Amino acid sequence: xxxPAEPTEPTEPTxxxxxxxxxxxxxxxxxxxxxxxxxxxxVTAALLAALLAASAWISIPIGxxxxxxxxxxxxLLAGLLLTVRGAVLAVGVYLMLGAAGLPVFAxxxxxxxxxxxxxxxxxxxxxxxxxxxxxxxxxxxxxxxKTIGDALALAMGVLxxxxxxxxxxxxxxxxxxxxxxxxxxxxxIPIDAFKAVAxxxxxxxxxxxxxxx
Length: 213
Prior knowledge:
By secondary structure, this protein is mainly α. 35% of the residues are buried.
């Protein structure tokens, strides 16, 4: 008679069962991090929009149609600190408030008349400039390093502001392009160069402190 076969011992669970993980164990962490970053950027954009409005009240006339304000400083800073989306959001909100009639433009002015007036081109240029700065800074950083990349991006942003401002100033006031350049661009080059250097310092300090990333 054949001996009964020895009972086999239960095998260990396969890798399929041991490798099973809670499908929700990692998703919230990733989603939460992404949501936190977006919230941080939205708050930063709102703060910079408010600073942009406040900076317009610091206006120094220099005898031309275009006064000196701190707005360019805030615009450049937004371009370095925010993504393209956040930067455009910050400046876009500011322009919409001004277009609605709130006194957030230079000299405490507001309304569409300012956007269509002699200095309106600079305001439109702010939106394009922040997008250009935010987009270029990451690409320049790969090519020439972060600090030089930031500086080059700021320079391109300032040129964009000048271009929009110069074109609208010449068109609205009906002066020749050279006169518009003398009145609306050349006097501001050294001032805006100083602002750009200050922005580089402030942006780096904010990144190091962890206020922004």
